[in-house]
Amino acid sequence: MDTFSAAVMLFLIMDPLGNLPVFLSILRHIDPKRRRKVMMRELLFSLAIMMGFLFAGQQILSFLNLRQEAVSIAGGIILFLIAIKMIFPTPGGVTGLAAGEEPFLVPMAIPMIAGPSILASLLLLANQAPGRMTDWSLALLMAWGASAVILMFYEVFNKLLGERGLTAVERLMGMLLVMISVQMLLDGVHHYLQVVG
């Protein structure tokens, strides 16, 4: 796989367009002047986490005696809980935070941007071709950069959708997120059973 193909694959897994409704619903509760700073902070956190996983993911999992399947199962559970809150909103919104309280690391950086699928893909790239870490780093930066541009212009989508449109998209994405999270959970269990069996 060349660098560009890897970048496209990572970009599709990050799914910035799919994450937009979740990000919009989280940012609605934050002071408008702080939104862009919060978004950039969470994007930088996610990049640091993904780079860390690319270079040291296998060692981290080995040190903690964790399987890659555990990352997938845990991510699936977290996404499922977020999806339920999207479908059945609570006063604190998707994050359960009080209005105006900023999210920190979860759920924007993890698992929305640096989710279990992207972390598992980075582990796979690093394991398959450990001599091409520069290529994989460049691919990750390209995918992250494209995602960051889309997510930083969330206000354009907010104006296009409006309040009711945003609520409708949020519920719809919640339903899709439930399916994705269940699939993630099933994949993790299936791979675990294959390894154990």
Automatic annotation (TrEMBL):
- Localization of this protein: Cell membrane
Spell out the GO cellular component terms annotated for this protein, sorted alphabetically and separated by semicolons.
Answer: plasma membrane
Span-the-membrane segments of this chain are: 6-27, 43-64, 70-88, 104-126, 138-157, 169-186
* Keyword Acetylation belongs to the record: no
Keyword Transmembrane listed: yes
The UniProt keywords, alphabetically, are: Cell membrane, Membrane, Transmembrane, Transmembrane helix
Where does the UniProt annotation place the signal sequence?
none
Q: How does it sit in the membrane?
A: Multi-pass membrane protein
One Pfam family from the record: MarC
The family line of this record is: Belongs to the UPF0056 (MarC) family.
Indicate what this protein is called per its UniProt record: UPF0056 membrane protein
